[in-house]
Amino acid sequence: MASRERVVGAAENVDKRGPSDLDPYEVDTDERRVVSAYCCTCEETATLLLEVGDDSPWEHDKKHASHTVEYWREA
Questions:
Q1: Which one of 1, 10, 34, 64 is CB 3.0 to 4.6 Å from 14, fit for a cystine?
Q2: Which neighbouring-strand residues pair with 48?
């Protein structure tokens, strides 16, 4: 039997907060930096040594778009 309710909008589990802050690999692209990455899904880790102008994400993040990856910049 069909429901008489009209559904509008997104599902409850959709993040509606809008765009988030830039990831650390996207910031300060005019200098060399060390960024650590951790995949919360499969627990793989990496240290990214980024050169001037490099703002590309971790290769693992590109290959596994459904995984949740955290980035942080080393001091």
A1: 10
A2: 35
